[in-house]
Amino acid sequence: MLFEEPARSKYDLSFNLGRMPVRVHPAFWIITVLFAIGGPSTPTTILVWVGAIFVSILVHELGHALLMRRYGLSPHIVLHGMGGLAAADFGLRSQSRRERILIALAGPGAGFLFALLLVGLVLGLGYRTHLLGLAIGNGAALPSPTLQLVIADLLYINAGWGLVNLIPVHPLDGAHVAEELLRSRDPERGTRNSLWVSVVAGAIMVVVGLFVLDSPFVAFLFGYLAYLSFVAIQRHRGLPPPSASKGWKRLRERLRRTRRKVELRVVETAAKQSIESQARMEEKAASKPEIKAEAEEMLRSLSEEARRVRKPSSKIGHGREED
Ligand SMILES: [Zn+2]
């Protein structure tokens, strides 16, 4: 699950995989080809890479989507410029925490399963292959270089992409899991805490990208995601941007004064009406002393209430008093 769903375009490719609606945004092809021609490439390596990315992201999103469907949602899959997403029209609000965690894990899980099946197939046919730099099996090499490349790309993307997705940096799947776990411990601050985890994990990945993987791209990507999480924390705090804070304070003060005026007017009107009706009652009840005493008592409490409201320090109504 990565980023928002892009708007429909007339160059979208739409099809159904079984009963699962799939839409491929044109940006998916453009970005994937750009990545492929970034390194040493031939038309064959580009074609194999684009095909492997297409299949792998589809497998990943199918993992999410099939579990969503199992939990009663009607999901669809979109492949876009920044990867893919499996979305349901009504979100995951009605799912339990356990179900939401399993849905998040199902994406990387499907990729790992796919990689395992491929390794099993290659070994079962008596060949050897590589998985994330490790030699697997001691059979013959796969018969054609293109086939070797197909298997290598598929294994690399499914296992590698799955592992990357488990890093708890928003909006990767690992961050959704971390958020659910943190929210189960602290429902109010769980989301914010998961954003802090995201900032720290993203910063660590910047260092790993630069000094371990020697990949400026990984460093840049995680630096950017950490920055987005930091921005989200600021928004979460509800702080208005610094330039707007003066105007914001003025607006709050004006609202407060208006509310006070309205409250005063309401109490005054009520008191006036009561005094009038009291007077009428008094007239009628002049002959009955117990009703007269009751009326006087009501009048006294009402005028006390009006006095209390006029005092600047008094508080009327409910709600938090702004400072
Ligand atoms: Zn995912």
Task: Provide the fold topology.
Layout: E1 13-17, E2 20-24, H1 26-36, H2 43-70, E3 75-80, E4 83-88, H3 97-124, E5 129-131, E6 134-136, H4 145-165, H5 173-185, H6 190-212, H7 216-236, H8 245-284, H9 289-310
Parallel strand pairs: 2-3
Antiparallel strand pairs: 1-2, 3-4, 5-6
Helix pairs in contact: 1-2, 2-3, 2-4, 3-4, 3-5, 5-6, 6-7, 8-9
The chain binds zinc ion.
Zinc ion (ZN) binds next to α2.
Task: Walk me through this protein's architecture.
With 323 residues, the protein is of the alpha+beta class. The chain folds into three domains: 166 residues, no CATH class; 62 residues; 56 residues. Helices cover 64% and strands 9% of the residues. It is built from nine helices and six strands; from the N terminus they run ββααββαββαααααα. The strands form two sheets. It has a four-stranded mixed beta sheet with strand order 1-2-3-4. The chain has a two-stranded antiparallel sheet with strand order 5-6. It is elongated. The relative contact order is 0.06. The chain binds zinc ion.
H and E order: EEHHEEHEEHHHHHH
Binned, the helix content reads: 55-70%
Quaternary status of these chains? Answer: single chain
Morphology: elongated
Strands, count: 6
How do the strands line up in the largest sheet? 1-2-3-4
Structural class: alpha+beta
Outline the biggest β-sheet: 4 strands, mixed
User: What ions, cofactors and ligands are bound?
Assistant: zinc ion
Could you tell me the strand content as a percent range? 5-15%
Low-confidence stretches: 314-323
Distance between the termini: 41 Å
- What's the gyration radius in Å? 33 Å
Number of helices: 9
Total individual domains: 3
Query: What is the residue-mean pLDDT, rounded to a whole number?
Result: 83
